[in-house]
Specification:
Length: 262
């Protein structure tokens, strides 16, 4: 994708004119290519014991850029979880995951993330479920400044609690979660609603997230799916808080549309 369309409000870059030798302001240019692949292997489906193994790879490549704020990077993530159904109404899950981020930036950034958690889901009745999890996360980041390599370690407890109830035409729910990233902890409270339509579904959620600095941001998402005689189409809008490559919490809004034909 052309950077002029991805980041149209980016500030111009100060470069040297090869003809006159003078410094001039030039608009950012270049292209960005994102490639990814993933795989999941699951055993014990429908049985009291189960296991799921997952792997994801993502690469971001920039070509013909001017400024150094755009750089190539790769992310690899491996996850493993074990499920045990203790009774028809109680299920537990032990999960572990790890990821590695490598950036070809001036600081030669590498980031290793680890997470271990234990969760349980309990059915209060056929229409009501409550889920909870507790875990520990560790994020270790290495960067080079002035020829010296430094390490920044962020760790802490993670957890989640959610309540979901099936209603006549869908479900309602409320959830709380705490996650750990390289910028610290993030607490999120979210309310959700899903509805079954005649030939599709409509779901959405809205909530707030708060970081270590006390900054609060609105988060939300909505998704619409509709069946066609020989396929389906979908439309989704998502607003979320994420950590960018410059170690900043930023609000990102994405609109996605899809269509498939059989």
């Amino acid at each position: 994708a052309d950077l002029r369309y991805i980041d149209p409000l980016a500030d111009p870059v100060l470069i040297e004119d090869l003809t006159t030798g003078e410094l001039i302001l030039a608009p950012e240019s270049g292209t960005r290519t994102i490639s990814s692949y993933y795989g999941n292997y699951e055993v014990g489906i429908g049985k009291p014991l189960g296991m799921t193994l997952g792997y994801t790879h993502r690469a971001v490549d920039y070509v013909d850029t001017i400024s150094t704020r755009y750089y190539d990077s790769t992310t690899d993530r491996l996850s493993l979880s074990f499920r045990m159904d203790i009774s028809p109404v109680l299920s537990t899950t032990l999960s572990a995951s790890g990821s590695r981020y490598d950036a070809e930036n001036p600081a030669d950034t590498t980031r290793d993330s680890r997470n271990v958690s234990l969760g349980a889901t309990y059915s209060l009745d056929p229409a009501t479920k409550i889920s909870a999890s507790l875990g520990q996360s560790r994020v270790e980041e290495d960067e080079t400044f002035g020829g010296l390599r430094s390490t920044d370690l962020t760790k802490g407890a993670t957890g989640s609690l959610s309540f979901t109830r099936e209603v006549q035409n869908g479900s309602i729910g409320v959830s709380y979660s705490r996650n750990i990233t390289s910028t610290g902890k993030h607490d999120t409270l979210r309310f959700s609603r899903s509805m079954d339509l005649r030939e599709g579904s409509l779901s959405g959620s809205v909530g707030v997230t708060r970081n270590d600095s006390g900054d609060t941001s609105l988060v939300a998402d909505v998704s619409l799916q509709q069946s066609l005689p020989r396929g389906n189409w979908s439309l989704s809008l998502r607003r979320a808080v994420t950590t960018n490559d410059r170690e900043e919490d930023v609000v990102v809004t994405r609109l996605n549309a899809g269509w498939s034909q059989q």
